[in-house]
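testing teh design pipeline on a random one, pls ignore if ur not involved
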């Protein structure tokens, strides 16, 4: 079930990526909800996802 939550989080973040404020809010919720090793995976995914989206890179401060 934990893996399902991680996949759901990725889906939600992709859908709200049009708005950096909403993206940051959802990312914050995800960090509180996921297991520590999933947060590490999320950090890797986030680095790749925000690579060409400079407006979302601001949210990287939340996960560090």
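output:
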């Amino acid at each position: 079930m934990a893996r399902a939550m991680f996949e759901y989080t990725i889906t939600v973040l992709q859908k709200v990526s049009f708005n950096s404020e909403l993206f940051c809010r959802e990312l914050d919720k995800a960090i509180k909800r996921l297991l520590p090793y999933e947060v590490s995976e999320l950090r890797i995914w986030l680095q790749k996802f925000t690579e060409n989206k400079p407006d979302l890179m601001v949210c990287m401060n939340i996960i560090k």
